């Protein structure tokens, strides 16, 4: 079909193979793709460990690749499986055809004889990878915003989209399937319903999950940099942070006059205050060493430094908004509002995609990496480089402000 724009690279590869009549290439592409199968939500909730095959009027089981999935609805969910899985579980009593993306130019009705199933298994076994490769920028050309405020808010979550191998601009999100999405939110976030999802999303949007100690240390340096209009020496930074903590401890030991009356003095133990000071001094050293590595690897410019790590929450908030759709804990409207707020929060704190990314990377490393400069660091660096250099990256095509 002349002039057809494929939703993503997956469908484009299927379409080109079909146009050539190269069905081996079609199956090879299909073997690398996640295949989504519709399930009534009520049945999926009642039987979470099974997937039922439903025939269409042509005695076919319909599956979709990621770019052709419809907008999520409350009544229908989608589970994802591989071509190899279908080959393994298919029985003679199942539908006569596997209908891939019916109604699109890349559609195919695949027969399901034992010889066909053997070919499916062989292609899947030979596939170099399965699903969208992580570490690359994946874009929906059709079906996802490419410009404007919603696209900007989604691009705020692009670090996670790239590292997880997902479309950065898929607001109508299905993830890796309904039950896998629910398991992800339960295992990583202890989210089980709309209430816990909304609470976590709000915490991320207001940057209340990222460590306040990290933000305190960085805020001290921001103030110093503003006061002195230049680079801040590490020892000066440590001294100022220590002085601030001591002042705070002294104030807590004095009665305070508030609109509600006089508060009772609550002096803190000296050991507690000294321990807090020692911890912040160590933290400043860690931040300084990470920034040195960031500069050496191009994550920061030569004279750059990290303003804030709130972007680690902002980026995760953008993703959390759409994760809720995949798990059916939230609606599309709620997710869009969350994505827009994530973009607005990021713009209030940072001045560029590069600044935002450096803050995100530092937050991730402070939480996970422990100065090992291992996968948590190298993954963040690779994602930053992909998003700042790929011509198709939203960071190259969507203005920060």
Note the main sheet: 3 strands, mixed
**Number of continuous helical runs:** 17
For this structure, the quaternary state is single chain
Number of strands: 7
Mean of pLDDT: 94
Shape: elongated
Spatial separation of the terminal alpha carbons = 38 Å
Order of helices and strands: HHEHEEHEEHHHHHHHEEHHHHHH
Structural class, by secondary structure, is mainly alpha
Sequence stretches where pLDDT stays below 50 over 5 or more residues: none
Strand order of the largest sheet: 2-4-5
Bin the helical content. 55-70%
- What share of the residues does DSSP label as strand, in percent? 5-15%
Summed up, the domain count is 3
Report the radius of gyration as a whole number of Å. 25 Å
Describe the structure.
This protein folds into three domains: 9-126, no CATH class; 149-210 and 310-397, no CATH class; 212-253 and 266-297, no CATH class. 55% of the residues lie in helices and 7% in strands. The protein has helices at residues 9-20, 23-32, 41-46, 83-89, 114-126, 149-156, 158-164, 178-189, 194-205, 212-228, 234-252, 270-297, 310-326, 332-349, 353-368, 375-389, 394-397, and strands at 35-40, 60-63, 76-81, 97-100, 108-111, 256-258, 261-263. The strands form three sheets. The protein has a three-stranded mixed β-sheet with strand order 2-4-5, with no helix packed on it. Strands 1-3 form a two-stranded antiparallel ribbon. A hairpin with a 2-residue loop joins strand 6 (256-258) and strand 7. Helix 15 packs antiparallel against helix 16 (375-389). 41% of the residues are buried. The model has no long low-confidence stretch (mean pLDDT 94).
